[in-house]
Write a structure and sequence with these properties.
This protein is α+β, with helices and mostly antiparallel strands and 109 residues long. It has a domain of 68 residues. Strands 3-5-6-4 form a 4-stranded mixed beta sheet, with helices on both faces. Strands 1-2 form a two-stranded antiparallel sheet.
Length: 109
């Protein structure tokens, strides 16, 4: 029996170095090469509020815009991330509680 209150998590996209983003929140994958995108990233770095750096110190190659207004910086190219989004086996779908086997309780002595 499925509990209606049990939330199901949306699939997650690995944006590099075991950092994940919810796929249903992604609006756009943009290269960092253009000057307007570089200026936007620099401005958000100065503000320090809406930027999530998932590069682990590597060179930023892709900016991921989220529906919440935040951006995620990734060291992977947008082509790599787009391929991961298009392949269902590359997306990490967290297991929900109803998919797990219930633990059998031990008899009380």
């Amino acid at each position: 029996m499925q509990d209606e209150r049990t939330p199901t998590l949306p699939p997650l996209l690995n944006v590099g170095f075991y950092n994940f983003v919810m796929t249903d929140k992604i609006v756009a994958l943009v290269r960092i090469d253009s000057a307007p995108v570089k200026r936007l990233v620099q401005q958000l770095r100065r503000e320090g509020t809406r930027i999530i750096d998932a590069t682990q110190g590597r060179r930023t190659r892709c900016v991921i815009f989220l529906s919440s207004g935040q951006i995620v910086l990734s060291a992977l190219t947008q082509e790599t991330l787009a391929k991961r989004l298009s392949r269902p086996e590359a997306i990490f779908a967290p297991e929900t509680a109803e998919e797990e086997e219930p633990l059998e309780s031990e008899p009380v002595e």
